[in-house]
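Example record

One chain of 224 residues, shown exactly as stored in the release files.
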Amino acid sequence: MKNILATAITLFTISVAAHAADNVVAEPGATAYNWTGGYVGGQIGYGFGSADYVYSGSSDYDYSNNPDGFLGGIYAGYNHQFANKVVLGVEADIAWGGLKDSALAPGDSDFSATTKIDLTGSARLRLGYAMDRLLPYVTGGVAFGKFSFDEYEDGVFYGSADESLVGWTLGIGAEYALTDNWTLRGEYRYADYGTRDFVTQPVEEEYSADIKTHDIRFGVAYKF
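Predicted structure tokens for this chain:
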């Protein structure tokens, strides 16, 4: 929660500073920027989260991983700016990354497990308020992803599973129009993928996974 609050405060501070700077350099009588239109962009960032596993047989093997790492991907969407400066948009994104962590079994140090989240994406709504070239916004929608679970005994492969994820995501961000076509953004996003049941192979063991992630992303987009 402290990380979420700090990120929100940072984004708000950047937004206010950028808006103030824009007001200083704006020419009298200049036409206000309009956010209506489609766009495509690229993003990079850092993600971290939690992956908690419950084993059907014994709590000795209830692993708890905290995967983290860098990510990068693409996004695309469309905004419509209303007369009252409210901006409503739709956006989809996909990101590839290497969020990864390993941990020993809490009740048996001979066993360990590794979690890797290598794909995430979403389909979301965005709601913002246009302050000329600055657009602070909130966003939320459906999140999806893919994770892998690999278990080892004394360092030797024991069993694994590759599973898909579906959940929800919420975020906050600010976007600034550098020119009439190019925009720059910073965004914090939280995703909760709920609980996913799976069975490892070749050794069949039943697990359930509870996975959540936090992402801090920066993007550059071209607006049509």
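Notes: The first helix runs from residue 2 to 25.
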